[in-house]
Structure formats: C-alpha cells, structure tokens
C-alpha cells in the first residue's frame, strides 16, 4: 500500500508565539472554557480509592478514549506527554469497585428510575445475572447457568433469528475478531458494530473513491500542511489531544479551516493543558469558519469545483493538478460536465453560502500545495453520507492531495476500538481483511477457519432492531440479540420504537462492564447480563487500531479485578463451544497470543500484530501514506472522480433543519449537564438570534420542537448557528429523528430532519384541540 515508514514523534517549538494567544489574561480567567485543573482534581478525587491502579493505567495502557492512539502518555506524533479530560473521565470505568449487591438486586422499577449516568456510577457488574420474564429483580447466576441459557436458545432458533452487536467501548481487535469468527461458526452473518452509526459511510466512500477504508495519512501530516480542513468535526471537544497537533500545525504556518453549521467555540480557541504557553494564554485555532446549512456540504463542494473548472477555462493548471489527475484518476470529464450544469442559485440555496464565499475557499485550496481533510459525524450521519465523503475525495483527487506528505483524507475516529471492528470482520459486509461479497475473500477465510461461511447477507443493526417486531412466522424474526456494550435507547433514532423492539426479543444478552438503561428493559423470556473485563484486565493484553492505522499493544495491567468478569473474547469462545461442542477444535482462539497470530493470517495488512507483546509495541499497517504516489489499491490503480447529485433537502415553510451535537460527553456517556465551551444545558436548543427574534423567543424561554416523528421540550439558547438551522444535543434530540431511514450504501441512520419550533405555552395551549397535528399536516412534507 505504501513504502514510506512513519518517522516518529517530533518536538514542539520551545519559544512561545504571542500572535497565537487568545488573551494575555492567564488561564482564560473570566472566559467560558473548560477548567482543566479543576476537572483533573475532581477526577483524581473520584479515583482516590484506586489511585495506584489508575496511575498504572494512564502510564502503561493504551488510551481507551478516542482513537488518537496514546500509549501510556506518549504517541507517535509529538514528543512529550499527552493527557486529556476525555481519557480521565473514562478512567473511572476501569477503577471503580463492583456494584453493591443490595443495589444490583434491587427492584427493577427502582433501578429504572435512574439515568444511565447514575447507573454507571453504581460500579462494575461483578458476576452473571439473569432476569426471567415476570421477575422484578436480577438473580445471580453461575457462568454455566448463564451461558447454557444462551446456548440453549441459540440451538432452538434459525441462525437468521440471532444477531450480535459490539460497541466500541475499549473493545480490542482480539475481541472483534473472535466475535466475527464465532458468529459465522454459529451460522449467522447478523453481526454489526458501533461504526454503523458513526463512520460506516467513510469506509464505504473511501473504498469506492480511492480503494481504501481508512485514513490515508497521519496526524503528523497536519503539522506543516498548507491547509487543514475540519469538516463536520469538533475535534477539540471529541478528541482533545488533537488540539496539541493543531497548535503544532499553527506554529508551522498551517491555515485551519472549519466547515460546520455551528461556529463551535472550541474550534476557534482552546487552552491546551499540556502546552504551558497555551494553558496560560490559550491558542487561536481556526483561521476561518464556513457555516453551511445542515446537509449543505455537497452543494458547497460542487460550488468549489465549479469555481475550479471556471478558473481552468481562464488559465489551465490554475486549479487542477492535471499531471496527477491524468496519471491517477478516472472520470474527470464526467465530473466536469456534471458540475457545469449546476446553477449558482441552487448551489447557494443548498449550501447556505454565497458564491463569493465558495470562491474564497476554492482559491485557498487552489493556491495550496498541500492539504489534509478531516471529517466526522457532521458529514457521515446523513442519508447521503457516502456521497458526502466521496465529494471530499473528489476535492483531494483534483488537487493531488493524496499519497504524499502533508496530504490526505482522514475520517477521525471517536473511539479507540472502532477502526479495527470492520477490519476484524465484525460487520455484516466484512470478513477479516476482506469483504463478504468477494468470492476470493470467502474462500480464503473458509480455508483458514476450516468451516463454511453462511451464504446469506447479514443485516445492519438498525434493520436487526426492526426485525424484532416482525410477525412470528418470519424467518428473520429476531429472537436472540447479543450485545457487547451499547445502549440503543440512547444512540438510535426514535427511542420509543427502540424500547418496543428490545422488549419484543425472546432472549437479550448484555455483555458489559456496567449497567445502562437498556439493560433494565424486559424481554419475552430472559435478560442475561455477562460481566466483561476492560482491555487493561484481559490476560495476554490486547490491541487496538488508531485513526492513523497504528496498531498498539496494551498490556494486562496489575491491579484489582472485578468478581467473575472475563475477557470478552473468552466469553465468545466458551459460548460457541456450548452451542457447537463438536466445533471446539475448529474454533481455536485459546489465548490472546494465539488470536493475534491468527489475525496476522486472516487480515494480511495486520501482519505484524503477532509480534506485539510488550508495553509500547506498535506498528502502522499500510505505511505512512495509503495510495502513496497516487497509486490506489483499485483494480486499475486509479481513484474515481464521481459526479455527486445534490440531495433533496425539503424544509417546508415554517420549519428548521435540525441536527444533533455532543456536549460534555464521551459518545453516549454524559459527564456533565453543562457544555463547558458554551454553557449550554442538555436541553438547550441552539438557535440564531435572528430566528429567535422572528418567533418572538427570548433567551431561556421554554419551547417545544416537534414533527411527525416526535417532540422535545427545551429552552432557547442564542448561538452563532447558521440561520434556518438549529442544533440539539445527542441523544436528547433523538426523539425527533425518524426510524428506518438509512444511507443506501453504508446503512448509517439519518440523524437530521426538519422540525417546527414553538413557544411551549402555545404548543400546550392548543394541544387538546389537535392544533399540533393539523400544523404538521399543513406544513410538513416527508423528507425523502
């Protein structure tokens, strides 16, 4: 894939640069910002009962937070220690004691009154639990009883009626791999993972555009690139250590551009705690912010390319790297014709930006000799997410920003475990190192594993949930759902539907380290809870793959252990042997070391993982740059320039486009009701002052947001969000999002829709006269 090797960490400049300071007032006193020192002290106090173990986790283990890839306190990008509050907040999951028995076995109604945050704070799950239909409390079970209950059910149903799901909660490559193998051994392709609801369009789009399914570059490429673009990504909030890389990039003269409907404060300025200069005076990050409409990115990018093609007509070579395009791409003329027929009025309406602003960005990139494009859920969580990413790839291919230093395409991952999930085969479309649809990959894996793979196509997790409500006679009626982590009540659209689906399953298995609100739901026959180890407790250690394709070894760390918790991969192995005793020899996977040796054979790009065994061991698959020198791993070695149609964005009169955002949280785990960057409450609705004034809404006023899918009660929060658009927190706003709307290529749920905003008193005053229903019928058109 690439011949150049990563050259390791570089040093930051020693001399301060006052031009980048936010303020000369030390520590940003008086400003709205995270209080890192206070937060660190608070977290130290929370871990006071286990501080030595906490210290060993931080200094010896690989971060189980975001996917930047910090091993101990160090990474491969910058010299010096790195630590962020995201990692510190997650730390307590690893150090807290077991849940007290009187709480664990309390009446289910009492537990159900708690939020997931409160349930998390109860502690770790210490031993297997079972709650059968009609029982009001969890009962303690032996491992034999719990696993035999699960295995017994699996033996009585069609494999199409069972499904596995793995979240990204610190789960290792070893666990993903074994889960993928066990699922296929048991006869099902219904296995999915957390990337389905975050970055699945990134993999799908990059595969079709440039032939790879991961970041083509490194974090080091940020530092010194001419332009660093963050597209629908709030890295400062979700991957805080990345602000250190942004600081280093700024010191090298890099321009940082943010494209987002909301002018995110954390991307404009940040006080980076591990850089003394920045900790004192802050750092100006973004050089410019392009506030697009929600869903307006394709229109914006078509506008940028339209400017480029106009520039080319006047002066060939002024915008497009013709040498690169001619040697390494297909489809230029089709793309040129597609863009030429689009009119500026439509592009402006779709994107929300003027022709002049699109020209500014186009000319900036045309002048640049290098650029790195970074994106996250702002681009992927749409029903046209794959097209969004292929459009970004179009920009990179036209300018030759691929396969060389300071250039590349980077889907920045929000969790340390998720990059490896599909690469290990825990995906209905994937096998380790390949694809289900590939006859060659299927034959290769069947030969290695020694058994025949199921031939039918497995379901994505959203469809799996829908299958729980199929009629009894349907062959895909979901009867057994086995989840490793995850809480669909707080991650999927339409929570009421999700609740109905989860309670309609015969047997539901929650393999986890903590309880959450979904664990407490009833099932038709039984809910089984299995206590899992964290990555730091797993015998033989484990590996995880970072955003930049670094495969890190995280060792087993000495410290307290929780009751009867087992390594996740070991639980899968035990279960498979109970369901199919005669298949034990075929399964293998008896130790972590044996699993890594098998991964190296099953996934050729992971050859090298078998040698990882000590703290600090790491290798990068694919070299420093995928598609090095422009050569793509596609059948003809070329990237594809794809004409991308504008999505139809129907926003009826009186409606706002709405999307979800993250606050003080790690994925769905909320750590504070207040966002430290803008002081927004979890139920604050971010709305532009002009829009609020037009509706006679005052700051802090109670409002109701609603559509035909659901409603949400909130309060007005004036914010610099694109007029005509509003933002709500995730998952609080998921009640507004329709179920069953998936991106057609990657299957990610749609997390954007159109809503009506009204004063709460108006909404409730007319509710009994069916005013709301009539208002929806009059104004709302289904978004297709």
Automatic annotation (TrEMBL):
Domain annotation Molybdopterin dinucleotide-binding: ranges? 658-754
- Please, which domain of life does this record's source organism belong to? Bacteria
> InterPro entries this protein is in?
Asp_de-COase-like_dom_sf, MoPterin_dinucl-bd_dom, Mopterin_OxRdtase, Mopterin_OxRdtse_a_bac, Prok_molybdopt-oxidoreductase
Q: Say yes or no: keyword GTP-binding present.
A: no
Q: Cite the Molybdopterin oxidoreductase domain residue spans from the record.
A: 124-577
Q: What keyword terms does UniProt attach to this protein?
A: Iron, Iron-sulfur, Metal-binding
- What is an example of a Pfam family matching this protein? Molydop_binding
Is Metal-binding set as a keyword in this record?
yes
Q: Which SUPFAM superfamilies match?
A: ADC-like, Formate dehydrogenase/DMSO reductase, domains 1-3
Database matches in NCBIfam families: Fdhalpha-like
Q: What is this protein called?
A: FdhF/YdeP family oxidoreductase
Name its species: Paenibacillus alginolyticus
């Amino acid at each position: 894939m690439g011949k150049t090797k990563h050259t390791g960490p570089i040093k930051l400049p020693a001399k301060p640069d006052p031009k980048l300071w936010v303020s000369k007032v030390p520590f940003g006193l008086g400003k709205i910002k995270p209080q890192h020192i206070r937060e660190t002290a608070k977290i130290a106090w929370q871990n006071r009962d286990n501080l030595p173990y906490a210290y060993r986790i931080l200094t010896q283990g690989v971060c189980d937070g975001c996917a930047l890839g910090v091993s101990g306190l160090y990474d491969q990008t910058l010299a010096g220690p790195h630590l962020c509050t995201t990692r510190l907040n997650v730390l307590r999951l690893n150090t807290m004691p077991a849940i007290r028995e009187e709480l664990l076995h309390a009446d289910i109604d009492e537990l159900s009154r708690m939020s997931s945050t409160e349930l998390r704070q109860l502690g770790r799950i210490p031993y297997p639990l079972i709650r059968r239909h009609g029982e009001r409390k969890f009962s303690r079970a032996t491992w034999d009883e719990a696993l035999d209950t699960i295995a017994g059910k699996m033996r009585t149903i069609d494999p199409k009626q069972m499904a596995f799901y793995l979240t990204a909660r610190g789960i290792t490559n070893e666990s993903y791999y074994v889960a993928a193998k066990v699922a296929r051994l048991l006869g099902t392709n219904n296995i999915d993972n957390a990337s389905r609801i975050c970055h699945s369009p990134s993999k799908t789009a990059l595969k079709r555009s440039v032939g790879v399914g991961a970041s083509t570059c490194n974090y080091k490429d940020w530092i010194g690139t001419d332009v660093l673009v963050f597209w629908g990504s709030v890295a400062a909030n979700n991957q805080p250590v990345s602000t250190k890389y942004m600081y280093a990039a700024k010191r090298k003269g890099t321009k940082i551009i943010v494209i987002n409907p909301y002018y995110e404060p954390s991307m404009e300025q940040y006080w980076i705690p591990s850089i003394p200069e920045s900790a004192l005076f802050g750092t100006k990050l973004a050089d410019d912010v392009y506030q697009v409409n929600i869903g307006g990115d394709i229109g914006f990018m078509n506008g940028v390319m339209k400017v480029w093609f106009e520039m080319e007509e006047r002066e060939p070579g002024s915008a497009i790297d013709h040498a690169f395009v001619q040697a390494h791409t297909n489809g230029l003329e089709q793309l040129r014709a597609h863009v030429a027929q689009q009119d500026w009025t439509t592009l402006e309406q779709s994107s929300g930006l003027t022709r002049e602003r699109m020209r500014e960005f186009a000319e900036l990139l045309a002048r640049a000799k290098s650029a790195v494009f970074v994106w996250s859920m702002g681009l992927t969580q749409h029903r046209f997410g794959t097209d969004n990413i292929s459009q970004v790839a179009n920009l990179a291919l036209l300018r030759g920003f691929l396969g060389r230093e300071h250039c590349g395409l980077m889907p920045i991952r929000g969790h340390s475990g998720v990059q490896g999930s599909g690469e290990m085969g825990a995906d209905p479309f994937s096998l380790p190192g390949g694809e289900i649809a590939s006859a060659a990959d299927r034959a290769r894996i069947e030969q290695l594993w020694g058994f025949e793979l199921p031939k039918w196509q497995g379901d994505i997790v959203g469809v799996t949930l829908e299958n729980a409500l199929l009629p009894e006679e349907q062959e895909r009626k979901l009867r057994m759902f086995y989840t490793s982590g995850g809480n669909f009540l707080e991650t999927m659209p339409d929570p009421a539907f999700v609740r109905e689906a989860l309670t309609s399953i015969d047997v539901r298995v929650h393999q986890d380290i903590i309880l959450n609100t979904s664990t407490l739901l009833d099932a038709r026959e039984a809910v089984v809870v299995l206590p899992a180890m964290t990555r730091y407790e797993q015998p033989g250690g484990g590996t995880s793959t970072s955003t930049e394709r670094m495969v890190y070894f995280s060792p087993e760390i000495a410290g307290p252990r929780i009751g009867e918790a087992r390594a996740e991969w070991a639980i899968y192995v035990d279960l498979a042997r109970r369901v199919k005793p005669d298949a034990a020899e075929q399964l293998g996977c008896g130790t972590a070391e044996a699993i890594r040796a098998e991964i190296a054979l099953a996934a050729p790009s992971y050859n090298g993982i078998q040698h990882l065994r000590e703290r600090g061991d790491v290798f990068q698959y694919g070299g420093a740059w995928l598609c090095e020198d422009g050569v793509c791993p596609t059948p003809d070695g070329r990237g594809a320039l794809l004409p991308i149609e504008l999505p139809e964005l129907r926003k009826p009169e009186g409606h706002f486009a709405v999307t979800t955002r993250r606050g003080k949280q790690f994925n769905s785990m909320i750590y504070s009701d207040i966002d430290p960057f803008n002081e927004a409450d979890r139920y604050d609705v971010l709305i532009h002052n002009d829009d609020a004034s037009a509706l006679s809404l005052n700051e802090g006023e109670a409002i109701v947001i609603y559509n035909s899918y659901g409603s949400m009660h909130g309060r007005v929060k004036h914010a610099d969000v694109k007029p005509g658009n509003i933002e709500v927190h995730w998952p609080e706003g998921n009640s507004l999002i329709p179920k069953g709307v998936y991106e057609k290529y990657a299957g990610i749920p749609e997390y954007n829709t159109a809503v009506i905003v009204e004063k709460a008193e108006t909404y409730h005053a007319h509710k009994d006269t069916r005013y709301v229903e009539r208002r929806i019928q009059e104004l709302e058109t289904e978004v297709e």
